[in-house]
Amino acid sequence: MVKTFAYDLSYQEWKDWMTRHGHPEWRANQIMDWLYVKRVDSFGDMTNLPKNMRAELSEFFHLMPLQVITTQVSRDGTVKFLFGLHDGHAIETVIMRHNYGISVCVTTQVGCRVGCTFCASTLGGLKRNLSAGEIVAQVVMAQKYLDPSSEKVKSVVVMGSGEPFENYEPTMKFVRIINDGHGLNIGQRHITVSTSGVVPNLYRFADENWQVGLAISLHAPNTELRSKLMPINRRYPLAELLDACRYYLEKTGRRLTFEYALIGGKNDQSEHAHELGKLLKGMNCLVNLIPVNYVPERNYTRTPRKQIFEFKRILDSYHVNTTIRREHGHDIDAACGQLRAKHSRLS
């Protein structure tokens, strides 16, 4: 019998499982408490459940789908995990400390097939999608790491390795599970999902009728340059992406974030800033400027600090809200996919 991961089940699915197996439905509340509040390491630790039920749970489910391979801790408090999966693959998860609280960045795929030229996640291509439970478990493991210091995960960003909108259903299920009041109870407004622009699923996301944030990996002010940096633009050109973004804004009334990685000599010149300002002027959005992380396999250089502020000044002149992302974990393998790529080379 193939076992399911316990974290793959929603609260309603636990209630349904209890009913099918002849247990009171309210046992689902106890399961959720053990998984998400007490965060136990085995079914045997669920001491208010009958012994035969604990044995039954062990027969049908794996409790934790992740094993820690490596933990890196930065001087700024950023923590990066390399987790091993049941099939020998590895994924990354990051804890980041902000002045507004602690956030966790989760991964949705082993590798990535989108092929952005500045990203380490795409090295080696896509291996497989993660299940909802494998994504949920990343947040649980991060919270367990924080438990000794009584710190709490306040927000979650789905911005790790992989393209969430190419693993759409498990990613959306993940959001619903961590949002559930019987579990981690992370508010929808404290969850942000990022996409490189899978247009059909962007429309689906807009129709979900919730308050989850959306970030678009843009990285270029025109379709020609974007196609060079992000091959997905050849499938979903910039004009189609912006049409979907406008639909999202109209449907949800929420502000949209555009992620823009500044790459030395590629997309960071004054003319790029002016073009981007004209493109986004009047749109209810925030542009998040990201100094590109150095990746040994990619021959890209960082934009000088003075030039970054000039880029922001130009966008401000078009009344486009702009921030510069604070760096996290610069002294460790902080970029998405870096730690996994290093592990793969050494294994």
From TrEMBL:
Entry GO CC: cytoplasm
Sequence positions that bind [4Fe-4S] cluster: C112, C116, C119
Cofactor(s) needed: [4Fe-4S] cluster
Enzyme Commission identifier(s): 2.1.1.192
Enzyme class: transferase
Domain of life: Bacteria
Location in or out of the cell: Cytoplasm
Pfam families: Radical_SAM, RlmN_N
One GO BP: rRNA base methylation
Active-site positions on this chain: E92 (proton acceptor), C336 (s-methylcysteine intermediate)
Molecular function (Gene Ontology), one example: tRNA (adenine(37)-C2)-methyltransferase activity
Record InterPro entries: Aldolase_TIM, Methyltransferase_A, RlmN_N, RNA_MTrfase_RlmN, rRNA_lsu_MTrfase_RlmN/Cfr, rSAM, rSAM_sf
Keywords, ordered alphabetically: 4Fe-4S, Cytoplasm, Disulfide bond, Iron, Iron-sulfur, Metal-binding, Methyltransferase, rRNA processing, S-adenosyl-L-methionine, Transferase, tRNA processing
Protein family: Belongs to the radical SAM superfamily. RlmN family.
Function: Specifically methylates position 2 of adenine 2503 in 23S rRNA and position 2 of adenine 37 in tRNAs.
Further information: Reaction proceeds by a ping-pong mechanism involving intermediate methylation of a conserved cysteine residue.
Descriptive protein name: Probable dual-specificity RNA methyltransferase RlmN
Gene name per UniProt: rlmN
